[in-house]
From TrEMBL:
PANTHER family in UniProt: CARDIOLIPIN SYNTHASE, PHOSPHOLIPASE D
Domain of life, source organism: Eukaryota
Protein name according to UniProt: PLD phosphodiesterase domain-containing protein
Domain PLD phosphodiesterase: 225-252
GO molecular function, one term: catalytic activity
InterPro entries named in the record: PLipase_D/transphosphatidylase
Organism of this sequence: Rotaria socialis
Record PROSITE patterns: PLD
Upper lineage: Eukaryota, Metazoa, Spiralia, Gnathifera, Rotifera
Length: 470
């Protein structure tokens, strides 16, 4: 066990205050997250790395240590012993560096709910981004690694323009903060650099004139040489978080996004502040608006944060199924088809599509009312897992994906599948999963800081500790 001594303080001795709380007090001596963090927490004790790694890999965790881990987290009920073992290892890393997890220690273990998950292509995930952005009331914090010109960036740009129009109609002003990672010569001197509006056209970011009721600030964060800022999430009004696997870029990948609510939102909020590090200009407006851990959460279409996407769900399901159908038939469709999101609809080459896909594409382009859908999406509730709050048995698509997962090389469908079986696979594809109603459950936010040096010694951090402890 990693015993307490003067060189290795106990976890209980770490400040229970958070960077968010200190910054919200607006004291004259604290003007940015860096100053708030440095006023609360000590500098990293790098010489303790070997001891921390030994604790994580070799030490047999005692029942007393599990109890201590359970008491440290902001949990509503005691998590499982497996969770607590991993959480104990995570807490060990904070004794070396309280900010090793890029979040104030008291917020690293908390609770939350997940009303919605999306397992689909990037356009479907970004369509949910779009609708969450345009429905924001006060503040949006968006963090991503790659921000590459393309249709994904266009969707976010369109969302910001539309948000500005809505805010202008209501005489509101929205604060938006964006963190991206695009290494420049400025990063040789400072890890964090504010991207001036004059540079925004290089990234296809809307100009201030295009969104007069949105105050956007862009922070370009990179640690030279290899310290990539790899996180991907968005916080809206400090009430919900979208955490996803994809960046803001165009890739033909199957990705995943989860929509979080509850106390975990406060943890993500603190992580964003610490990642930003430098002064906010203008300041944030939700610093004092804690997300409640005790809310009566709504699920399915009863969730007011999700009701705005009901109609676009039909279009997204049609698009996702079309993409899958064309993939199974080894074709290349245009997956960015939503007129409501893109500035203008692009012409799609028909030569490379099968007769079935062309027919589906033609139907999809007429999808502007709930009554007109691609054949496979006539029943909206049948295309969404969880709307009826009943679990679904293994279906042909599940079986197909499970079979493919058994081999790293099994990435293509069986060439012996008939056209009917291919259509069944596409019909079964359910990109939107509305989870059954559930109470807030334990969550540990296990991050790691970008590490610029081309070596692998920085393993004493919450993310690595959780993986190695498993």
């Amino acid at each position: 066990m990693l015993k307490y001594d003067e060189d290795c303080p106990p976890i209980e001795s770490l400040s229970q205050e958070t960077v968010t709380f200190v910054l919200a007090k607006k004291t004259p001596v604290v003007e940015n997250p860096q100053e708030a963090a440095e006023s609360l927490f000590s500098k990293p004790l790098n010489h303790l790395r070997p001891r921390i790694n030994h604790e994580i890999l070799e030490h047999e965790i005692t029942p007393e240590e599990l109890d201590a881990a359970a008491q440290y987290g902001r949990f509503m009920e005691r998590p499982s012993d497996l969770f607590l073992k991993l959480f104990h290892n995570v807490l060990c890393t904070l004794r070396r560096d309280p900010l090793a997890g890029c979040v104030s220690p008291s917020l690293i273990g908390t609770t939350g709910v997940i009303p919605l998950s999306i397992i689909s292509t990037i356009p479907d995930i970004l369509q949910h981004y779009y609708h969450c952005i345009i429905n924001a009331k006060k503040e949006i914090l968006l963090a991503t690694n790659y921000w590459e010109k393309g249709e994904s960036v266009n969707i976010i740009g369109k969302a910001l323009r539309d948000l500005s129009k809505r805010a202008g109609n209501d005489n509101r002003y929205i604060i938006v903060k964006l963190i991206i990672d695009h290494p420049t010569k400025e990063n040789l001197i400072h890890n964090h650099n504010i991207l001036p509006p004059s540079k925004w056209p290089d990234y296809d970011i809307p100009s201030p004139e295009e969104m007069p009721n949105v105050s956007l600030e862009v922070n370009n964060y990179h640690r030279i040489i290899l310290g990539t800022f790899h996180t991907k999430f968005m916080i809206v009004d400090r009430r919900m978080v979208l955490l996803n696997s994809n960046n803001i870029q165009d890739r033909p990948n199957l990705e995943m996004m989860s929509h979080f609510e509850g106390d975990i939102v406060n943890s993500f909020y603190d992580t964003f502040l610490i990642s930003w590090w430098i002064p906010f200009k203008p300041h944030l407006v939700c610093l004092n608006d804690d997300a409640s851990a005790q809310n009566h959460f709504h699920f399915g279409m009863n969730n007011t944060k999700l009701v705005s996407i009901q109609r676009p769900l039909q279009q997204a399901i049609a698009r996702a199924r079309l993409l899958l159908k064309c993939h199974l038939e080894k074709q290349a469709p245009d997956v960015y088809l939503d007129k409501h999101v893109l500035v203008e609809e692009k012409k799609t080459k028909m030569n490379g599509l099968s007769t079935i896909a062309i027919k589906a594409l033609g139907q999809h382009r007429r999808v502007h009312s709930p009554s007109v859908l691609v054949k496979a999406t006539n029943d909206l509730t049948g295309a969404i897992v969880g709307v009826d709050m009943n679990p679904r048995p293994e279906t042909p698509m599940t079986h197909h994906l499970n079979q493919a997962a058994k081999s790293a090389y099994a990435t293509r469908p069986d060439e012996n599948l008939s056209s009917t079986e291919l259509e069944t696979l596409a019909y079964d594809f359910t990109p939107f999963i509305f989870h059954q109603a559930h109470a807030p459950f334990p969550i540990a936010l296990v991050n790691r800081s970008p590490y610029g040096k081309p070596i692998h010694v920085d393993t004493a951090n919450p993310q690595d500790a959780a993986w190695m402890g498993a």
